Amino acid sequence: MIYNMKTKKNKEISSLTAIILAGGKSSRIGSDQDKAILKLNEKRLIDIVISKLKHIAGDNIIIVGPPEKYPSYKQVVPDLFYQRGLLVGLYSGLKASTSRYNLVVGCDMPFLKVELLQYMSDKIDSNDIIIPRYAKRYIEPLCAIYNKDCLKIMERNIKAGILSIRRIFPYLKVKYIEEEEIKRVDPEFNSFFNINYKEDFIRAEELIKGNKSNN
Q: Looking at the chain, which terminus has fewer C-beta neighbours within 10 angstroms, N or C?
């Protein structure tokens, strides 16, 4: 089922911004390019991700990465701290956003399910973080929604050198999207497939070929 964002009563949802973390080289895949601009099925990974996010956020999309490497994209912001990593990227994207709620994903997630993203956005309510969880312990911080209220605790932890995303959870209201909920809209959990190694890239190509043959 596709959830129609326009039918939601929560005004916060209509101004949702999507943030793509685009840092990271593809050296483990065997390329010297940034991972975001690698081509899969003749399309850049980042463009595949953007095409999915437009269903949720329209043109309200921020890319966190070196601006000089993404000159053709509308809004690109650099990391705001000298440290690198997930928490710093999240902080930088949230800081640049003008929306209260922000959907954050990685640049290397070509099989994001729009149905899952819309389902998550329907669970915003008064939560600070809406995040998938499965097998009772695995979470997906790069397929999650964050309230800008997270910024204060994020900044405090970054300055203290505490860079684990889980370390901000005790101070915030976290809504978990549990395994059974995920299965209803993404039975294969493909939304969380990301490309880190050459084997992942080959598997992604196989998945695309399989989808084409089934259509």
A: C
E-state strands within 117-185: 129-134, 138-139, 143-147, 174-177
- The C-alpha atoms of residue 90 and residue 142 are separated, in whole angstroms, by 9
Angle at 84 between CA 153 and CA 23, to 5 degrees: 115
Contact 95, 174 (CB under 8 A): no
Q: Report all structural domains of the chain as residue ranges with CATH numbers, in order of start.
A: 5-214 (3.90.550.10)
CA–CA separation, 138 and 141 (whole Å): 10
b/e burial code for range 175-214 (CB count within 10 A of at least 16 → b): bbbeeebbeebbeebbbbbbbeeeeebeebeebbeeeeee
pTM of the model: 0.90
pLDDT tens digits, one per residue of 182-205: 999 999 999 999 998 889 999 999
pLDDT of res. 31: 65
Q: Which of 84, 68, 79 is nearest to 19 (CA)?
A: 79
Dihedral-angle region of residue 105 (phi above 0 means left; psi in -120 to 50 means alpha; beta otherwise) = beta
